[in-house]
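WARN retry 2 of 3 for item q-0093 after timeout on previous attempt; input resubmitted unchanged.
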Amino acid sequence: MQIVHVDMDNVLVDFPWGVEQLSEEIKKEYEGELDEISGFFSDLPPVDGAINGFRELSHHYDTYILSTAPWGNPSAWTDKLLWVQKHLPEVGHKRLTLTHHKNLTHGDYLIDDRAANGAAEFKGEHIQFGSEPYKDWESVLSYLLP
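OK item q-0093 returned
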């Protein structure tokens, strides 16, 4: 069975929505380092179509969640686990990998919105979420599903 890794931030988790909810004071205090805000990751909503999309992929692929957690924010590591337990309890169980080197993971596909943290060097196919032709979950699923 082929392996698919799915990034969390901006692919499964709506990071921009969370930024919009922050006060101007917090945005200014953490300017350029918003992912360093303690507790920020746990309450973010899913990206439209992400939960159903991940579940659907899980019927056809060996599917994992691959994400980077900020080094200076230990709560983010726990928050990301709690997010998966809340939103993908059955299909995400023990399928979360947190790494700063995504290129070291093995797989056929990586769905990620950026080329950072080793995504550009991933040995399989990098599907850049949010770009043409993979602008949303519907387009990703139409590409990957039979």
